Amino acid sequence: MAETPVMDRLIRRTVEQHLPLNVHFDLTYRCNERCVHCYLDHEDYGEVTTAEVKAVLDQLAAVGTLFLTFSGGEIFLRKDFFELLEYARQLHFDVSLKTNALLVTAERATRLRALGVRRIQISIYSADPVVHDAITKVRGSFERSLRAIRFLKTQGLQVKIACPLMKQNLTAFRSVQQLAEELGVPYILDLTITPKIDGDMTLLALRNTGHDLLPVLQDPVLNPRVKGGQEVMQSVPAVGSAVSSGLESSAYDDIPCSAGHNSCYISPYGDVYPCVQMPMPTGNLRQQRFEEVWYGSGEMRRVQSVRESQLPVCSTCSIRQYCERCPGLAQMEGGDLLGAYERACELAELNARLAGVEHPVSALHQQQRAAKFNGTFSAVLPGTGSIPGLVRIAPMRAT
User: Fold this and answer.
1) Got the DSSP string for 323-344?
2) Dihedrals phi, psi of 129, to nearest 5 degrees
3) Which H or E element spans position 160?
4) pLDDT at 1
5) Which of 21, 57, 180, 206 sits CB 3.0–4.6 Å from 166 for a disulfide?
């Protein structure tokens, strides 16, 4: 969502007053695809019921939430989905959806339009059906998702294509660009492949290296940081995070992101996290009311206290402006919410080099080189599949 003076004032006020402006609510982890890079456990351990979801929505409305994203798993696998959507709209939430759209029919597209859904994000991994279907592990999924996009467009709904780039589809990004342009929809290329939500690191093997991503990062249309680059003529960045709220503002200047400040994530089991990419449990809505978690959780207050200018390593980094450090990934991959981590530093150095900085080196790499020179640096052995000290999070079971 593009920044405007009104939106900037709203974001600034919610950050200053710690109001949960934006909430991402996964209604289910069940899914009718089995994407190779998915970080979720698709078993159902006792999802929140219809009544429980409605109670949470009442609580969110009472504390001032405006933007609500329903996601999954696959949201249309919930038989009560339209009942929940209708209830959310009655409470005047601005609702966005994330779906693979396999279950979107012309009739359902019409109903979504009637209920006033603002935007629907659909994952497309390639314009080549073979590549797309190999990632989802569902034959025919590309054609079904594409057909749904056309249904939704016919109803005048806003659609955005999200394309996470991994080793299996790196060379497909231009075909996705072209497809989005043909369909007349914005798109986002997401370079982030994350660990599983339980801390399992095996999915990181699907990540492209920084060197492999150079064709994307060197494209001046996709990456405005490139020397001589240009902004993409669409309402969202062409390269970024598909899990981001898309709300941009200078109010976030000295905080890592909106997580825990004016946004959060709710799991299908009622667990509340600062963000889906920050699996730090702060409470459970089957045991507490939302406002008790949002305003009373010690873990949430810890996240809220973090300031970029106080990060022990990153605040000293000379190429900080080229970095898109994620505090959740810093915790999962580096074991420290306040720390630097290898992936962010690698991409920051690449972006800085492409912007014309000579010999950019991140603060983390400078420290590692200095320690190695002094004979005290000890490398962590790769391939362990986990990060020491990371708390693995399991969903709370229904009782």
Assistant:
1) ----HHHHHHHHS-TTS--HHH
2) -55, -35
3) strand 158-164
4) 52
5) 206
What 3-state class would DSSP assign to 59?
A: helix
Distance (Å, whole) CA 99 – CA 60: 22
Residue 199: which of 381, 390, 396, 341 has the closest Cα?
A: 390
Exposed e or buried b for every residue in 174-183, given b needs 16+ CB within 10 A? ebbbebbeeb
DSSP state of 118: -
How many Å apart are CA 158 and CA 80, to the nearest integer?
Answer: 23
Q: How crowded is residue 399: how many other Cβ atoms within 10 Å of its Cβ? A: 6
Both tokens assigned to 342: 């290898």
Q: How many other CB atoms are found less than 10 A from the CB of residue 107?
A: 9
CA 369 – CA 379 distance, rounded (Å): 11
Smallest Cα–Cα separation from 225: which of 117, 133, 333, 348? 348
Q: What's the confidence (pLDDT) of residue 231?
A: 46
Q: How distant, in Å, are the alpha carbons of 12, 80, 158 from that of 26?
A: 26, 14, 20
Cα distances (Å, whole numbers) of residue 285 to 53, 99, 160, 268, 279: 10, 24, 31, 10, 16
CA 281 to chain centre: 17
Q: Do 281 and 393 touch, CB atoms closer than 8 A? A: yes
For 187, phi then psi, to 5°, come to -145, 160
The Cα 97–Cα 112 span in angstroms is: 10
**Amino acid, res. 309:** S
DSSP E strands in 134-256: the ranges are 158-164, 187-190
pTM over 0.85: yes
Q: What is the pLDDT of residues 288-314, one digit of tens each?
A: 999 999 999 999 999 999 999 999 999
With CA atoms as reference, report the closest residue to 86 among 70, 104, 72, 98.
Answer: 70
- Parts of the chain with a pLDDT under 50: 231-236, 377, 379-399
Determine the Cα–Cα distance for residues 45 and 398; give it in Å rounded to an integer.
7
DSSP H or E segment with residue 346:
helix 342-354
Rounded distance between C-alpha atoms, residue 365 and residue 348, angstroms:
11
Q: Are 252 and 262 in contact (CB under 8 A)?
A: no
* Three-state DSSP state, 39: coil
Query: What pLDDT shows up at residue 390?
Result: 40
